């Protein structure tokens, strides 16, 4: 595998995988593998999410975050460890840090509708009374991004020389999270801790993340040569990156790349930034043991065996959402 230093995130057309010729499908799988080996991020189009859905969800979440803090806090349930509903300002921090990120967010989780007993493992979603339209659009976007994520995982499975549907049953009714984020305005930048940022450098916990276009710049990814490069996607694209679970399962063959959201220049700190990632998680019983075909003499096994549920619990404690 040649080492590639990308100046920008590679752009791919998911339709080449889902509807293309055998050659187009194979080329998509190879290009995806090259990107995930090197930078861990791609931008994709033809993913199923429409402009109308995007605009509707952004309009809805902007209404929610514009409400007074005391109203939003009605939808914060501390005993759920941030699994559902509102999570207040500065509550989450990157692994290895203690300063909270300059953000607030809302969690929408799996809505099990097919009688799967896994429903008992998930708390019910929490919906704000003040914005009744939020439920239908959030769940529509959730299911659309989940379907795109299944296709991406099928391409990843082929790249790993596994059965194309290897991940399908592992992510069916998985513990995935849609997270609308508000990086709130800072009226007086000198009052926040010197090391406080919108989102400190981190890797995502899950298998893959599908990110809807953000309302402003700021997302950066750490290239393997130590250079931070900006992540920009065209309006019709989703950015899809490898998370720590997939990196672990592939013995780091696929890279969970460190990324961050930097603060804007001081004169723009008083503006909001909105972003909506979809964190695609498997079912908690998925075995994340390193795949045999990702282990060899040059790449010895790096990780202890663990399930997805155990790994998630460990990480929730590390980022401050679950009490130790």
Structure description:
By secondary structure, this protein is an alpha+beta fold. The protein is built from 8 helices and 13 strands. The strands form 2 sheets. Strands 1, 2, 3, 4, 5, 6, 8, 11 and 13 form a 9-stranded mixed β-sheet that branches. It has a 4-stranded antiparallel β-sheet with strand order 7-12-9-10, with no helix packed on it. Strand 9 and strand 10 form a beta hairpin. Helix 2 packs across helix 5 and helix 3 packs across helix 5. The chain is globular and about 55 Å long.
Summarize this entry quickly.
The chain has about 325 residues and is an alpha+beta fold.
Give me the secondary-structure category: alpha+beta
What would the average pLDDT be, to the nearest integer? 90
Q: Indicate the radius of gyration in whole angstroms.
A: 19 Å
Runs in which pLDDT lies below 50 for 5 or more consecutive residues are none
Question: Beta-strand level of the residues, as a percent range?
Answer: 15-25%
Please state the overall shape, judged from the principal axes of the Cα atoms: globular
* Main beta sheet strand tally, sense and closure: 9 strands, mixed
N-to-C terminal Cα separation, in Å? 41 Å
- Supply the number of helical segments: 8
Order of helices and strands: EHHEHHEEHHEEEEEEEHEEH
* Approximate helicity band: 25-40%
Query: How many strand segments?
Result: 13
Keywords:
alpha+beta, 27% helix, single chain, 324 residues, 8 helices, four-stranded antiparallel β-sheet, nine-stranded mixed β-sheet
């Amino acid at each position: 595998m040649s080492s590639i230093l990308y100046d920008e995130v590679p752009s791919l057309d998911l339709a080449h995988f889902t509807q293309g010729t055998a050659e187009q499908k194979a080329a998509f799988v190879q290009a995806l593998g090259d990107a995930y080996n090197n930078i861990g991020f791609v931008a994709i189009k033809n993913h199923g999410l429409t402009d109308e859905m995007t605009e509707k969800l952004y309009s809805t979440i902007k209404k929610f975050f514009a409400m007074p803090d005391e109203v939003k806090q009605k939808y914060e349930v501390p005993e759920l460890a941030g699994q559902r509903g509102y999570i207040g300002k500065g509550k989450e921090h990157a692994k290895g840090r203690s300063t909270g990120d300059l953000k607030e967010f809302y969690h929408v989780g799996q809505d099990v509708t097919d009688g799967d007993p896994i429903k008992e493992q998930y708390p019910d979603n929490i919906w704000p009374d003040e914005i009744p339209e939020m439920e239908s659009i959030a769940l529509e976007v959730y299911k659309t991004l989940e379907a795109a994520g299944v296709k991406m995982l099928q391409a990843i499975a082929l790249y790993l020389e596994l059965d194309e549907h290897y991940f399908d049953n592992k992510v069916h009714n998985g513990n995935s999270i849609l997270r609308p984020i508000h990086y709130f305005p800072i009226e007086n930048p000198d009052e926040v801790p010197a090391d406080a940022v919108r989102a400190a450098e981190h890797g995502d916990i899950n298998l893959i993340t599908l990110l809807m276009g953000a309302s402003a710049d700021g997302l950066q990814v750490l290239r393997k040569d130590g250079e931070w490069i900006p992540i920009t996607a065209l309006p019709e694209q989703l950015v899809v990156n490898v998370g720590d679970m997939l990196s672990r399962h592939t013995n780091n063959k696929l890279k969970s790349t460190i990324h961050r959201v930097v603060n804007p220049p001081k004169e723009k700190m008083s503006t909001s930034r909105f972003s909506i990632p979809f964190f695609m998680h498997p079912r908690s019983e998925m075995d994340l043991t390193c795949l045999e075909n990702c282990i060899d003499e040059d790449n010895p096994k790096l990780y202890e065996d663990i399930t997805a549920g155990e790994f998630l619990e460990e990480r929730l404690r590390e980022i401050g959402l679950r009490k130790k």
